[in-house]
Amino acid sequence: MRKEELDTPALIVDLDILKRNITSMADFARAAGVKLRPMTKTHKCPAIAHLQLEAGAAGIQVAKLSEGEVMEAAGIKDIFISNQIVGAQKIERLIRLARRAKIRIAVDSVENAREISRLAEGKGMKIDTLLDIDTGIKRTGVPPGEPALELAKEVVKLPGLNLMGIYTHEGIVYRAKNKEELHEIATRAARDMVETAELLRDNGIDIREVSLGSTPGAKIVAKVKGVTEIRPGAYVFNDTQQYGLGVCAEKDFAATVLTTIISVPANDRAICDAGSKAAGPDSCTFGAFTPPNTPPVEARRKDPTTGLGLVRTLDGEILWDIVFDSKIGEEYGLLRGERCRELFKVGDKVEIIPIHCCGTVFLYDEVIGIRDNEVEVIWPISARGKIS
Ligand SMILES: Cc1ncc(COP(=O)(O)O)c(C=O)c1O
């Protein structure tokens, strides 16, 4: 079947671009001498995780335990679960999973670490553990330096845990206003991590992994001496946030939402069948906004996060003067711009490049792989809905 024959809305992925994105990050990590452990919450799709491993990834990272369970069942045996695993019910599941695969966990509190250790020790297990360090995002994690050392001194005593590293999500890079600032923020986060690792080692704690994770920061932090691992996720697909940060080019968007124009009610307005339930609701950190008027093309190029995605023709041309907005309805997407009636008629299909690929992909049961405009494969997004 050809791409344009697919029913919509549909999540499609260009297999050549996907492969190129996967390979180039793997090659980069290899050349930089760091391990690559992709964050798979971006795609939640075991088939894509396998492609990443085949390209040279050392293992994967998942956000949630249930995602890890799906990936393990699909044959992936080296998994870092980065969200804290709290409560006996989840810890029991973690221990069962750790019997079947090489699992790493993250902790940022003594209480949680003690509970996991107690239950793991009870089953005769020792679980590889990384301290969660907050390098500025102000989410979870202890601050670098002394607070990290204080926690490490407690965790290292616990018989059911094997404290072997530190990790961070340097998500503050998403707040960078330009490339220079992005470089500065990522480098600072990496240096904080390396210095913290050294402090812990000076105190007799054997820190082997110094792991940082984000797509915008990956290629910057990898070059800081002492960093051992990078964990980007969004790089597999890319999106308008990454483009806005200068992290990817127009040719690097792998995942799009195929949508049909269902109405062209005005010269400057067309409606498609991909609303917030199909295109994704929002950006992750930019706080995308919808301006009242279509901004000039050049302004749009400078800030492609205006609106909630870019519109691309099936031939691959980005329509920079058309703003996409999925906030107008769960089941309706708005395309706005002076040329709407000129460009679109009812029944036409276009592609939406999402503003934040992770949020969009999560909405679909399957992703349709396209090569040369033909459907080649359909992969289930098996960890979709796995949020526990
Ligand atoms: C803990 C953690 N590591 C890695 C990543 C991957 O970052 P990115 O989405 O920039 O690729 C994320 C993304 O949210 C994350 O939360």
Describe the structure.
The protein is an alpha/beta fold. The protein folds into 2 domains: 3-9 and 248-380, Beta Barrel (Lyase, Ornithine Decarboxylase, Chain A, domain 1); 16-237, Alpha-Beta Barrel (TIM Barrel). It has helices at residues 15-32, 46-54, 65-73, 88-100, 110-122, 146-155, 179-202, 215-221, 240-244, 276-279, 297-302, 340-343, 357-361, and strands at residues 10-14, 35-36, 60-62, 78-81, 102-107, 127-132, 161-168, 209-212, 229-230, 255-266, 269-272, 309-312, 323-325, 333-336, 349-354, 366-371, 374-380. The strands form 2 sheets. Strands 1, 10, 11, 12, 13, 14, 15, 16 and 17 form a 9-stranded mixed β-sheet that branches. Helix 6 links the parallel strand 6 and strand 7. 51% of the residues are buried. The model is unreliable at 283-292 (pLDDT under 50). It binds pyridoxal-5'-phosphate. The site of pyridoxal-5'-phosphate has 10 residues, from loops.
Assembly annotation: single chain
Rg (C-alpha, Å): 22 Å
CATH class of the largest domain: Alpha Beta
Which cofactor or ligand species appear? pyridoxal-5'-phosphate
SS class: alpha/beta
> How many strands, which pairing sense, and closed or not: the largest β-sheet?
9 strands, mixed
* CATH third-tier fold name of the largest domain: TIM Barrel
How far apart lie the N and C ends?
36 Å
Total of DSSP H or I helical runs spanning 4+ residues: 13
Percentage of β-strand residues: 15-25%
Point out poorly predicted stretches. 283-292
User: Topology as H/E string?
Assistant: EHEHEHEHEHEHEHEHEHEEHHEEEHEHEE
